[in-house]
Backbone:
């Protein structure tokens, strides 16, 4: 489903060139539950951003769901992200003035789903992530774990091909973090949605069915469990 081939990415920080990725190649199959890990500066967030069409590579090929994303214009990429990809961030990125329901439903409104179908899908996914009865609460009235569940619901409600999660447990305690990972694993099994994590968290690494380790912009190891 995903083909990353010989990808390179260099940043300029002041007078210094930072070679974030050095000829990285990676294939991901439909429905995989994959973690990209490594020390700070290893390139894992850069790789996640390139797969998520948030950043562009300097060289190499990036094919997602048979689409050559590097050949697309910015407005075409925006549509592709909206339709095909879901995102879960360590800071949750919920809209504070919206309720849990509205934060999730908004995704479907952007896709021009009918009001009736959007309500049905939003209520169903919130129930699946354990937030039934909390639909009207704004983020300030939800715990960190509950906010991350809203973010997961928001990512999954449109039935994406792929969910990208950047340090999804970073702001959660270990018990809450495990509960969030359990939900994502259950969604992965139920819907066949591929998940790719970027993480420092050993718990996330242990949870993954495949672990890709980066070091200094290169893949150091790639192991399936």
Residues:
């Amino acid at each position: 489903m995903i083909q990353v081939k010989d990808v390179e990415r260099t940043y300029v920080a002041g007078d210094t060139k930072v070679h974030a990725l050095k000829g990285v190649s990676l294939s991901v199959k439909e429905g995989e539950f994959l973690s990209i890990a490594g020390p700070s500066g290893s390139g894992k967030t850069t790789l996640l951003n390139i797969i998520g069409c948030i950043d562009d590579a300097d060289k190499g090929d990036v094919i997602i769901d048979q689409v050559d994303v590097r050949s697309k214009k910015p407005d075409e990429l925006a549509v592709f992200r909206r339709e095909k990809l879901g995102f879960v961030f360590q800071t949750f990125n919920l809209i504070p003035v919206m309720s849990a329901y509205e934060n999730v439903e908004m995704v479907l409104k952007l896709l021009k789903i009918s009001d009736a179908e959007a309500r049905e899908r939003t209520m169903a996914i919130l129930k699946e992530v354990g937030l039934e009865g909390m639909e009207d609460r704004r983020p300030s009235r939800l715990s960190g774990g509950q906010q991350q569940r809203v973010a997961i619901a928001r990512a999954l409600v449109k039935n994406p091909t792929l969910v990208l999660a950047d340090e999804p447990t970073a702001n959660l305690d270990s018990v809450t973090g495990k509960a969030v990972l359990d939900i994502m694993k259950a969604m992965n099994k139920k819907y066949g949605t591929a998940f790719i994590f970027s993480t420092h968290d050993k718990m996330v690494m242990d949870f993954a069915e495949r672990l890709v380790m980066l070091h200094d912009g290169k893949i150091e190891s790639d192991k399936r469990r």
